[in-house]
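Changelog-linked ticket: PBG example.
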Amino acid sequence: MIDQTTSTMTAGMAYPTVRMRRLRQSPALRTLVRETELTPGDLILPLFVRPGSREKRPISSMPGQFQWSVDTLVTEVREIAAFGIRSVLLFGIPSEKDSHGSENADPDGIVPTAIRAIKAAVPEMIVISDMCFCEYTDHGHCGIINQPGRAHYRPEMAEGYLLNDPTLDALGRASVVHAEAGADIIAPSGMLDGMVGAIRAALDRAGYELTPVMSYAVKFASGFYGPFRDAAESPPAFGDRSQYQMDPANGREAVREALLDLEEGADLLIVKPALPYLDVLREVRGQANVPIAAYQVSGEYAMLHAAAANGWLDLERCAMESLTSIKRAGADMILTYFAKDVVRWLNH
Ligand code: PBG
């Protein structure tokens, strides 16, 4: 598209023959030539679920977002379904954390319980399960950690290193549990090597060959996840996630990550965060021929709210502009905490 425009212009057609403002004269004309449109069908709303009942705990760094108990979550999902949101992504806050994050693979754990409740109440809602151990482990890392005296200890590897291959088995087991509970899509977010293949194989073995895997293929070690870690109560107890999440400086490596996940059988890919990585999103869109999602993360949401609360930015305008830009850059769908607001904004 960009090349064609350039060649027309170099062929001698310019001002005053060309006047770009002709097509900007009225709202109707602008609507007619608009290239990118957000629709409720593009949006996936992330939701946090915790133990208990009648809970709706505000997340202070994410205004308008809550930790729900299963009962209030179901009410919320009914409400968002009624006004046009078709998919949700679930994060669980377990009642107990341990070194292996066992609750993630417990059929009576918080997320499988929430999935069953949502699917019973609103069967058509697409329920995506975020498949990672960081919310469930006492150390806050995304899998099994190398520690003397613990299972899978490898003396030749650093203490505290996230053990890749033992974690893959655990991811496979937990994914089957979530699929059994009724998850429509499994979304591994731990950035482990081989996670997509391991989950695909485990699902297939268990008879869930039709359950898609939506891989967080390109997930950067980002400061923009800050508020999420309050929300999910999952900050790492030591170190950070740079051993497994990507260096924000790397774009070529992102394409490689995306293509590897496709080879392992990913059905959809996620690029995350969104706004600071639009170039990566565009590049991945160009090279990977599957649906691509972008995740507008907690920090992107919090920044807009903070600025708006100070009267420095108009929330609706800037949120819509960010989301439109994310779509324009190549996202087929967007995971966003603004999903409910967007539907409201689109309707007025
Ligand atoms: C890990 C996970 C994280 C997010 C989604 N899944 C946190 C992390 O990797 O530290 C971040 C989402 C957000 O910031 O909105 N299970």
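Closing comment: Example verified and attached. Residues 140 and 236 are 4 Å apart (CA to CA). The pocket of PBG is lined by residues 130, 132, 134, 189, 225, 228-229, 241, 297-298 (CB under 6 Å).
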